[in-house]
Amino acid sequence: MREANTLILRTAALLLVPMQLLFSVFLLLRGHDEPGGGFIAGLVASGAVVLFLFSYGVSATRELLRVDPRDFLGVGLLIGLASILPSLILGQPAMTAQWWQIPLPGGDYYKFSTPLIFDVGVYLTVIGSILTMVVGLSESEESDA
Amino acid sequence: MLLAVLSGFILALFAPLICRVAGDRCGWVFALLPATLFVWFAWLLPEVMANGAQVVRYPWFPAMEINLDFLIDGLSLMFALLISGIGTFILIYAGGYLKGHPYLGRFYVVMLSFMASMLGVVLSDNLVTLFVFWELTSITSYLLIGFEHEDVKARASALQGLFVTVAGGLALMAGLIMLGTMAGSYSLNDVLASDADLLGHEWAVPMLLCILAGAFTKSAQVPFHFWLPNAMAAPTPVSAFLHSATMVKAGVYLLARLNPALGEAELWTLLLSFFGGLTMFTGAFMAITHTGAKKVLAYSTIMALGTLVMLIGIGTHYALVAFATFLVAHSLYKGALFMIAGILDHETGTKDVAEMGGLASLMPVTSVAAAVAALSLAGLPPLLGFVGKELMFEAVLDAPAWQMLLPVLAFGAGIGVMVAAGIIAIKPFYGKRLETPKHPHEAPVSMLAGPVVLAGLSLLFGVALFIPEQTLVAPVVASLGGAAEKVHLALWHGINMPLILSLGCLVVAGLILRFWSRLQPQLDVLREGLGRFGPEAGYFRIMEWLTRIATWQTRVLQNGTMGNYMITLALTTVGITGFTLITQYGVPLRLPVPDSGFAAGIALLMIVSAFFATGTVSRLGSVAAMSIVGFAVALIFILFSAPDLGITQILVETLTVILLVLVLFRLPGFTRMSSPLERWRDIIVAVMVGALMTVLILAATEVQFFEPISAEHVARSVSDGHGRNIVNVILVDFRALDTLGEMFVLALAAVGVYSMIRLKAEDQTA
């Protein structure tokens, strides 16, 4: 796919992409209590990258990502599996959720947990799958042209 | 104990590395593991003999009664001793035999895993774990038989072995599950001690048949015996190990293990003694029709396996003592003889004993070891094999079942093995010196260690009978449910019927050997005739039909038209689901009415866009119309206050449209390719699917058998899951395992799409 040569889309993308990525992280982190979660956040983040892809093309997108989209897949799956380890180390049934309170500046606490780690794995796997497909398709189109 | 079983797998991980570091001496390094295990098992022996069976438990999936439990008693320890003891020499031997082989590292990986799986089979107390290890031995032996994977014959033989043993394994699984259910426990120790009436149960016969199918295929009983001689395609160290102490003995082990629980069944006695006897005779007979050293030995293994199965079937005190003695004797001489066959092959460059002669002066140590081991095979005094064979005759003569048939078969088998022993030990070493492709000389120490020690033990145990009697035979007899204190082995029983039978065998065998080279052509003809109608021909017939049916089925189901696939899928779903729905629940007729104008509006929108999608001539229009349906669904989710689902649906719709648009450019425009009749057919199928889905949804909301678990999820979400978003708590905590599986599916789908795109791109550049 040749990048869309419209100034408005390109300029808007520069603003929207980082915001959308930030929003996806927000969705990911609050997912346990409010609407959101790894799957949705992953979709939003992929949407952001796809928007960038449409406005700037494949090679620019690859540069932006720095790693191959397929690497997200592997890392995502590994993180998902790694979230099982703490329960095993503690000798509990596999996948028992572990919760830790992490003090935040200002006396507040953040609930950190293995389900969150697992959700990060979901997030990365979703991003990885969609980008693998979309980037792959766009690249094959470019080689066709 | 857990470490003892798993250490083989662990060492296998590092095998290629060790091979690279240790070079030619790696066989000695690997042998340290089984040697250590051997010492440890031997050290356990007195304790087990004094205190009886022990069970060591390691919970694995305790909720499903699947545990890494190990049962240590006389029977399992003797097998463990044989596996680790002979394994030690085999590993050393393999280092010499496969010296400089490019895949030596890979060989040791599989060999060590195989040994560990085998230990797992004989030590497992849990029926499920036993089955897992059992299948592992099938898989690893497949890799070992097909080790020379560039050889077509080796590959075919490996596959044949795998098919036969795994088909039996499947039956075994069914049998073990039935056994476990009937006994109320998956622990062998409990099953054996269970006072439940196993044999009176209505499943008793199917259970017995399934277990026997598993054991018979594994232990190469007639009519499944054909895979074993073909497995000779494996490198000789593998054959030696597979035949002497492992693989094929797994079936024998299982039968022996279950004998106390099932031995009372009449069916068990009849089937085991009949098939065992038949196998014993067939093996011995086939052995003398061959000239390949390894083939002769392979058939004599079949004879030994038949004997062991028959002895379990007979089940008297004599039979059990004979079983234990024969088992030890066979493992020792068969291991030694296979290694000797490997030495001959290695040194002379030919496998055919008819081409060898006069090697005794060139290979003195080998020839002595061969002579001793062969005497044990033939069952001549003062070797352990003699004691085993005399006991076997004794057991056969007072067998309760098949009284006439078994002694005749046993007599024939006795002749057969004596001839086989002569073929192996006399033909290559004595007589006229024959030219061979390679100039032979004495084998290296690594290859001689095994045959010499194992043959030496055959002799030592034969002369000093109290050693095997107290350490091996008595504990085994005790675990088999016999009286250990009555075990007494002796070389000389006075002049009795077994001795006369032995003498008779010797005379006939001597005559056959004398004229063996003249008989050979006739035997060849006979063998070929049998090959045409034997069970192996049946195997080929079955495989041929399997391929033919698969081809036909693929042609019909996978004819390459997308429309055909979709119709097949749709009709199957409608047929099966619809049938179940109508017969089980009936058709719910109450149609719900939308409760608000808004919902009705959305529904109308969906219907209109669905019709538009099917009617439009533009691809883009169709995609857009479909996405309207998708967004409308998202609206419905939001209407029923499921924001998470709504967001997800919108995002998925968006990305779907993006993906479709990306591929849209490469597709041609819509063209009308189907006749009006076909279009009507498609419409009917589509309406049927739509109707089924509607009825399904209606049924799902109306019919409820169980209390929905959603209330439980809501109640425990905050307290147990520490989250207020129930959907997310379910996804990442309550049902995280499902999610993990879905992650892998997603990743696989992406990789699949990617490789399809890549494949096409590469086609174009090429």
Structural features, described:
The complex is a heterodimer of chains A (145) and B (766). Chain A is mainly α and 145 residues long. Chain A contains six helices and two strands. Chain A has one domain. Helix content of chain A is 70%, strand content 7%. Chain A is flat, with a radius of gyration of 18 Å. Chain B is mainly α. In chain B, helix 6 packs antiparallel against helix 8 and helix 28 crosses helix 29. The longest helix of chain B is centred in the N-terminal third of the chain and has 32 residues. Chains A and B meet through helix 2, helix 4 and helix 6 of A and helix 26, helix 29 and helix 30 of B. Chain A: InterPro entries: CPA3_antiporter_subunitB, MnhB. Chain A: Its main location: membrane.
Keywords:
heterodimer; A: 145 residues; mainly alpha; two-stranded antiparallel ribbon; B: mainly alpha; 4 domains; 30 helices
Set out the fold topology.
The complex is a heterodimer of chains A (145) and B (766).
Chain A: H1 7-30, H2 38-56, H3 58-65, H4 69-82, H5 85-89, E1 99-103, E2 109-113, H6 114-144
Antiparallel strand pairs in A: 1-2
Helix pairs in contact in A: 1-2, 2-3, 2-6, 4-6
Chain B: H1 2-22, H2 26-51, E1 54-56, E2 59-61, E3 66-67, E4 70-72, H3 74-97, H4 104-123, H5 127-145, H6 152-183, H7 188-193, H8 204-218, H9 227-230, H10 236-244, H11 248-262, H12 266-287, H13 293-314, H14 317-348, H15 364-378, H16 384-397, H17 405-425, H18 445-463, H19 466-479, H20 497-514, H21 516-533, H22 535-557, H23 562-584, H24 597-615, H25 619-639, H26 643-664, H27 676-702, H28 710-721, H29 726-734, H30 736-765
Helix pairs in contact in B: 1-2, 1-4, 2-3, 3-4, 3-10, 3-14, 3-18, 3-19, 4-5, 5-6, 6-8, 8-11, 10-14, 11-13, 12-13, 12-17, 13-14, 13-17, 14-15, 14-16, 14-18, 14-19, 15-17, 15-18, 16-17, 16-18, 16-20, 17-20, 23-27, 24-25, 25-26, 28-29, 29-30
